[in-house]
Amino acid sequence: MNSIARSGAGGKRPQAPRLLAACVTAGSLVGAVSPASAQAVWQPLPAPAADQGQDGAAAASGTETAATPARRAIQPTEPDAPANPVTGSVPAEDPEASDFGRTNTREAPAQDAPTRALAGDTEAPGIRLGTMTLRPALMQRLGVESNRTGGDKQQRTFWETGLKGSLTSDWSRHQLTITGEGYWQRNLSGDGATDPRANIDADLRLDLSDSTTAHLRAGYGFSREDTNDPNAISGASVQSGIHHFTGGASVEHDFGRLRGTLGADVERWLYSDVELSDGTQVSLSDRNRTAGTLRARLGYEISPALIPFVEASIGRVLYDEKTDSSGYARSADVYAAKAGISSDFGEKLRGELSLGYRIQDFDDSRLEDIAAVTVDGNIAWSPHRGTDVDLRLSTTIDPSTTAGVSGAVIYALNAAVTHQLRSNLVARLTGGATWTDYPSDAGVSDSVKYTAGAGLTYSLNRYLDLTADVGYEYTDRRSATDSETWNAMVGLTAKR
Q1: Closest by alpha carbon to 182, among 149, 137, 237, 146?
Q2: What is the pTM (predicted TM-score) of this model?
Q3: All domains of the chain in start order, with CATH
Q4: How far apart are CA 48 and CA 72, in angstroms?
């Protein structure tokens, strides 16, 4: 007891706090170079005990100031648990985490995080079918429509049911893509022609080699002939249904900077009978025809994003019946050539635009050949993220059923803009113009049709969308009665 007292009075008192701090510092250095430090968490040292005094606090802090919290020896976590519970990464892979033992990693910008989260929630996952993914959607919409032709005005309320979807393969090589949609209408009140329509397209891409790719395509479409079309039967209660079948094959090969394409396409049109107001049916089988085309394209790669090209094609239009109901042989040879440029700048800009010439030479010498300058193209442009612009140009030849009239050249321009107002709210604007040009001596009026539309799609969740659309159409005829149509629809779309 006396020895203890003497030691306390005259001898040196053991510096327990300094000894403890030295042990802590040595343990920290060992832990920093130990492999276990990759799965350790730094923790601040609690405040020194009251009996340690000011010397004890300063010693425990080492080289740090009193305002800087001291760190004690690292504590190993569970072997299988990641050190960072947010990202699941090992802290040693992050320079800052390995230096300071951080458990709070940097977060993404606040404006991006909610967008990504909501965008994932509004996209339907689809149905997995082996190596294929099916994405179906069912639509139910209620609509109103008003149609005016001269002094004749019709209004109707209708119910529209639609089904659309896509089937896409997930193969290491080759790819099969099938898309389709169909719509059926039923009038709830009022008068007016219903507008059933459907189409389905399939494309099988075969990756034959690194420089050779083949495509096999097939498709089917159905539509009802427009009452205002010059080829429509006047006074019919139900116009003809048009069945359109397509098929084709093509092979593309790269010869260094040169790209060559050979293709063959076939089309088939079938027309159903027309039903008159008195119940009589009129056959339109004399309009049934098949068209076959061979085409060749040669392009030169200025850069991977710009490829100018030239293309030539030759074809034959063959009617099922040698002469139509008026005694005209409408089978014809078709020749076409065009030059243009295709581009692919990724998501920002891609598509192609071409200018050419097309002629359809009829077997019947009484029918004047149809010759026209053609403008064709499709451009997809995204000025900034969330906004997409789709522009399409097309030139087609529409054969006539009027005696002595060869047909018309149809020039069409259509544009669509979609903008993502929010991650679950998309706005749409559409517009277009279609010019139907008949020969000056045909006796049939030229016409220009203008269309405009707007719509909104609000995703309630990833499986259900609320849609609203409004549309307007005006047809200006040079020497005939103009027509005007507007409609509005609201509905729900269930998707999977």
Answers
A1: 137
A2: 0.73
A3: 95-495 (2.40.160)
A4: 12
